[in-house]
Amino acid sequence: FSHLQKKRRAATARRQHLKSAMLQLAVTEIEKEAAAKEVEKQNYLAEHCPPLSLPGSMQELQELCKKLHAKIESVDEERYDTEVKLQKTTKELEDLSQKLFDLRGKFKRPPLRRVRMSADAMLRALLGSKHKVCMDLRANLKQVKKEDTEKEKDLRDVGDWRKNIEEKSGMEGRKKMFEAGE
């Protein structure tokens, strides 16, 4: 018994060790990715945004402002175009995924449970408080009285068939049949 407990403890300890090693690896990978993103961002900014040098004269400042406004307008146009493209592609993607969903036929019907419910209860559930009609099906059935027919009277008169067979069986029955036949 203690041998099994030792094995379990060793397996648990090994699992814990592997888990902590995986977490440590994940943390280092995340840190590396963050550093790489920061370097990429710095490179992009250095390439696309040259350092700002403010000129001394008023006319040069106005020229700089005009250039900045033109850049802002072009960037805004690009941003708007990309947003429109993104909306268009997301809409297409939703449509395609819906078509795919329809083609696969992934809709699963929920398992239906049998419920014992009277017709009145069903109508009440469907119609709510509007339901006033009673759906007692037996109340609408016709009452039929039995009439004695001639066949039934004949059957009652004949009696039990076992008696007839007992009477005709054996020597006495044959004698009666023979006598009746003559």
From TrEMBL:
Gene Ontology CC terms, in alphabetical order: troponin complex
SUPFAM superfamilies: Troponin coil-coiled subunits
Keyword presence, Protein biosynthesis: no
Gene Ontology molecular-function annotations: actin binding
Record bears the keyword Acetylation: yes
GO biological process, one term: skeletal muscle contraction
Keywords associated with the record: Acetylation, Actin-binding, Coiled coil, Muscle protein
Superkingdom per UniProt: Eukaryota
Coiled-coil positions: 27-106
Known role: Troponin I is the inhibitory subunit of troponin, the thin filament regulatory complex which confers calcium-sensitivity to striated muscle actomyosin ATPase activity.
Quaternary structure, from the entry: Binds to actin and tropomyosin.
Record-stated family: Belongs to the troponin I family.
Protein name, entry field: Troponin I, fast skeletal muscle
Organism name: Erpornis zantholeuca
